Amino acid sequence: MKKTHLIAAALSTLLLSSCLSNKAQVGGVGGAAAGALAGQAIGRDTQSTLLGAGIGAILGYAIGNEMDKYDQQQLMSAYDRAPSGQPVAWTNPDTSNQYQVIPQPAYNGPNNQVCRKAEIVAVIDGRTERTYSTACRNSYGQWQLQN
């Protein structure tokens, strides 16, 4: 895939994600972006990139759709307290879905906000799914998931 196509895809993802209002949609867009990058790295052609984006979107949507308020609190706690590279795991008592979050080191993001990326591995209905998220601290010091 040409650099210009990759840049256009990234910008399209960012623009689309700014219009999203729920966890499933945000997860789908994030999954699509990660899947497209993985597809391009593996296949090095447009077809692999598109296939990766499709698979990533489905997995990201599923994970975002299944995370409820309890799971969001656990995720924010992992962003807040977990050492970089150390997995944090929990099982939702209502859904029995299992999650493992591996936060990465903090960095200065947009507007000099403190941000962290994390890998999320979820077991939902017996299927293991993987996605990535980013959260940045707002002006009140709370973590907010980024689109």
Largest sheet report: 6 strands, antiparallel
Order of secondary-structure elements: HHHHEEEEEE
Radius of gyration: 15 Å
Number of domain units: 2
Assembly state here?
A: single chain
Helix content: 40-55%
- Counting DSSP E segments of at least 2 residues, the number of strands comes to 6
Averaged pLDDT:
75
Alpha carbon gap, first and last residue = 24 Å
Derived from helix and strand composition plus strand pairing, the structural class reads: alpha+beta
| Outline type | globular
- Given the structure, what is the number of helices? 4
General description of the model:
Helix 1 runs antiparallel to helix 2 and helix 2 packs antiparallel against helix 3 (46-66). Strands 1, 2, 3, 4, 5 and 6 form a six-stranded antiparallel beta sheet that branches. The protein is of the alpha+beta class and 147 residues long. It has two domains: 3-65, no CATH class; 68-145. It is built from four helices and six strands, in the order H-H-H-H-E-E-E-E-E-E. The chain is globular, with a radius of gyration of 15 Å. A hairpin with a 6-residue loop joins strand 1 (88-91) and strand 2. The longest helix has 21 residues, at 23-43.
